[in-house]
Amino acid sequence: MIRILLIVIFCFVFLDNNSLYSNELYYKFHFSSDKYLQIGEELDYIVRYSFINLGEVKIRVKDRKEVNGRYYYNTIAYIDSYNGIPFVNLHQIYESKVNQNYYSDFFRGIVKGDELTSYTEYYFNYDNSQIRIKKGRFSPQQLWVDSTTTVGQQYHDGLSIFFYARMFSGKKNSITLPCFVNEQKVKTKINFYPEIIPVSIDNIDYEVECVRLDGEMDFISIFGLTGYFEGWFTNDEASIPIVANMKVLIGNITLELKSWKRAGWNPPKYKN
Asked: CA–CA separation, 164 vs 185, rounded Å?
């Protein structure tokens, strides 16, 4: 069960806009935002279950590329359990090409096991209204699944949605978001709030100025994430998640910011 708790953290938040688009609109930005991502940004989080530190999640913005007038961010996240935790030996990598609409153009998930390392890849081809799905293993290489499914809108993977929510935080709105999880098309509702809230965490010695979101999933992901979740994001142009609470099948877990690297940035101090 502890293994499930650590895996689920990465699927935590956010899952994408519900509108249908014609092909020529796929890459237009459908809401205004004063937030922005920074190349080289590094965010490290501690995963806790009750008073137990299970491991860490590390999220990186590697670079930004432009192809045929469309740009996307190459992002990556690492999930690793701490040594010495009984029954846990978890190492996973998630990669996402996040397009300028903050949807996913490509997703890869890698699970490193004791006996084999497996992968799942989604290729989002919106111009052809298709998602290609590939699943297999490395060393020795073996392809298990190579199939396609049709789509009528853009989708998110578990990582691209993280960045979408950051760009939307602080706005008063509720959105029903389609996502592609476990080769299924599912939805989550997210509520965004503009009220400014002071938030305290262990690794920052002052109260941080934040805004809040919460939401509800009506499905169970493969990692057990389900039901209600909430998170607090810095009230500035970086919109960095400071802490999040979420529900899994056996209880609640917390994600808390441990360290960060973003040029010229520190968490904004709450002003009374």
From this structure: 18
Q: What is the DSSP string of 208-263?
A: EEEEEEEEEESS--TT-EEEEEEEEEESSSS--EEEEEEEETTEEEEEEEEEEE-T
By the 8 A CB rule, do 96 and 157 touch?
yes
| pLDDT tens readout for residues 149-198 | 999 999 988 888 889 889 999 999 998 888 898 888 888 788 999 999 99
Q: Which two tokens stand for residue 227?
A: 């039901």
What is the token pair recorded at 10? 């990465």
CA distance linking residue 24 with residue 248, whole number of Å? 39
Structure tokens at 134: 């590939």
pLDDT digits (tens, 9 = 90+) for 231-240: 999 999 999 9
Kindly state the average pLDDT of the residues 111-135.
Answer: 93
E-only strand ranges, the chain? 42-49, 52-67, 70-81, 91-99, 104-112, 117-125, 130-138, 142-150, 173-181, 184-192, 197-199, 208-217, 225-234, 241-248, 251-261
Query: How far is residue 3's CA from residue 90's CA, in Å, rounded to a whole number?
Result: 7
Model-level pTM? 0.84
Side chain identity, residue 236: D
Contact predicate 16/179, CB 8 Å: yes
The residue whose two tokens read 């490290």 is: 44
